[in-house]
Amino acid sequence: MAEITAQMVKELRESTGAGMMDCKNALSEADGDMSKAVDILREKGLGKAAKKADRLASEGLVNVAVSADEKTATISEINSETDFVAKNENFINLVKTTTQHIQSKAISTQEELQTSTINGVVFEEYFKSEIAKTGENLVVRRFETIKAGTNGVVAGYLHSNSRVGVIIAAACDSEQTANKAKDFLRNVCMHAAAMKPQVISYKDFDLEFLEKETTALKAELEKENEELKRLGKPLHKIPEFGSRAQINDAIIAQVTQKLKDELKAQNKPEKIWDKILPGQIDRFYADNTQIDQRLTLLGQFFVMDDKKTVAQAIADEAAKLGGKIELVKYVRFEVGEGLEKKVDDFAAEVAAQMA
Known about the structure:
There is one protein chain. By secondary structure, the protein is α+β, with helices and mostly antiparallel strands. Helices cover about 50% and strands about 20% of the residues. It contains 15 helices and 10 strands. The longest helix is centred in the middle third of the chain and has 25 residues, at about 205-230. The protein starts with 5 loop residues before the first helix and ends with a helix.
């Protein structure tokens, strides 16, 4: 049996919002495996999805570079040890220069970056000299470049604090549509920066991931229903599914037949069923695609017009332009995403409360 430390309990508590003893018990049940402990809590409806951003301690900056022809976009993250260095003008320029270098040389791997030439010297030596200037360890943690194909366009957005950046590539029916869609696509980038979608569409989900998320979603709603019932408020409807990826034609046929049976039992005239059923099917999709609404870019409600999903907003914009717009690539970086926090004195406080 693995030792369950106060620091482990603290980390799980911060990332899930669950109670201290619930975290301790989950870690014991998972034999110290943090990922399994998160799943255990979520399956019991005791914790939200792990909020990685709340566990971040690594400092640094994200940078976004979009080429002049708006056919290529690059995003990078370079880490520093302290926020003080991250705000230094020399470090800011280093991040911008490195991002432009990655794009101009079409660099796709760390090895290519380290052996490339910048300002007449090997990048590895150039970067070491920058480290020496700051007196801190600096790391080019990650980077990615996306390209637009024929009749395509890229867009990018860097938040004002330079800690969050997004790049998107879209395929259009014509260069004319692509040129006119630029400003709108930048707004989609801003949406993604704020709302943190994981993927573009439900089609990008792994089915095993969806099964786990659906189980957690049901437990979360059931747990919330306990409080709603106590308060005398309307309860959440517990969905059978979490994503459109789990719903096939056979399931829709079954749902449609069930709805028809209900309409018949309610003595609704059959001649008006066609007017009622589409709305009921839409309601079924809304209830059973909540993971899509939370985690997919196209399924989220658009921050610029929260009466529409991003998918609907894109369709409306394409219709307004008289063309077609399809998102084909999406990348979002946030400084320190997925990195562990440093241990702090709060662990002693947790230990005292657990005693």
